[in-house]
Request: fold
Amino acid sequence: MTTSPTDRISSLLEPVVTSLGLDLDEVELLGKNENRRLLVAVDRDGGVDIDTIAQVTRAVSAALDESDVMGESRYTLEVASRGVDRPLVEPRHWRRNAGRVVAVELVDGERFEARIRASDDTGVDLAVKGDTTRFPYDEIVKAVVQIELNRKDV
Reply:
């Protein structure tokens, strides 16, 4: 079985990122030839500040330079925090966003906004119009954090 370039890059970078106390959230390789961009998203409890991004960028760049995983062609490396626009797909994403409002789509097609109350490895408690309901992760097709400009204390 052959692995994709993204899988090989992720395998190389996972121990580098975790050694700095972060999770490797996503790796994307975009473009072709001389116009390639390698996007690396990292996350951790409490968020990621710009100094941490700089530290991760240096470590990831060094690891990539020491390996042949990117080949000989030029590329641009971009390291960033996970960002609120990415879907919540792992239990840790739900935990890290407790108290925030999410737009949710369920497997039955129902869509709604709810506030994350609590979560664990099997599902999440969502407050919808004042009532809290438990949703197993396998019932959720997609969930994305919604930006609240005038967030109320929860």
About this structure: The chain has a mean pLDDT of 93. The radius of gyration is 18 Å. The beta strands are 23-30, 36-43, 75-81, 101-106, 111-119, 123-128, 131-136, 140-145. The CA atoms of residues 41 and 80 lie 5 Å apart.
